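User: Fold this; tokens only.

Assistant: Input:
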Amino acid sequence: MSRLVKIILISVSFIVLLLISGLVYVSTALPDVGPAPENLKVTVSPEKIERGKYLANHVMLCIDCHSQRDFSLFSAPPIPGTEAKGGERFDHSMGFPGVFISPNITPAGIGDYTDGELFRLITTGVKKDGNPIFPVMPYASYGKMDAEDIEAVIAYIRSLEPKPSEKQVSKADFPVNLIMRTMPVKAELSKKPSPEDAIAYGKYLTTASACADCHTQFENGAYTGEPLAGGRKFMFPDGSVLSSANLTPHETGLKNWSKSQFIEQFKAYENSRHIRKLNPGEMQTIMPWAMYAGMSREDLGAIYDYLQSLEPVENAVTKFIASEHS
């Protein structure tokens, strides 16, 4: 055997060994966010449950994803009776790399989780068994919140009526099933700013609401645009495409919006106003207006103040392209 062939074989063998070692490491050693806090026991009070209810329904929107949504209606509100029961499907027809089904977060679904395990799951995306979840749930944003707010959400979902449901298994496509193991990181919790510091408080609420997840351009598995400048595309099963709006204070974004106009844009959907039946080809959105509408005017105003403090980014967006088959 020639010396060159031997060198090639050794090199290929070394590369294969490295690949195998890497796969074993990713599959067994990651995610590495540390153990769930063993001694965490969430204290429960009516005030804490009420705070958790507000966050889970109107800011973090846990209940939005952990319910089944009715896409025959504008903004796809939760189907009555499915709230927190899970079962919402995110799959290839919507551009996801696999099939991801939201789990039941009533006591019927999370009863075997300790408070510490729930805290780690919400803030790092790592389940009780040590495996990661796909970041449809914006755990990276939740990991920057105040621990007291996370505990309030835990207290609230513990207080919900148990709703038994069939457990459905999510499955990511290869190689996403390996890539998602590298995504979770240790939480970097913060203290909630005083509402008197409107910009800092607005930034906190914007993070808790994970606005940047949807309102930042995203292509080929990575964010490619300026944060909150919009342009992320969302596919619907019928082939129509939604693009998120530019939230920076540029003329192509929110520059010409007053605070009152911004707040009323949300409050218009309070009590399910304007949530109507859609005809084929009409604009649909994944933006859960009716749920965000429950946010207080003060909190919505703080978000506006924060968004207006951002560097303006030019990004004209075509909001909706109807399916050719509509």
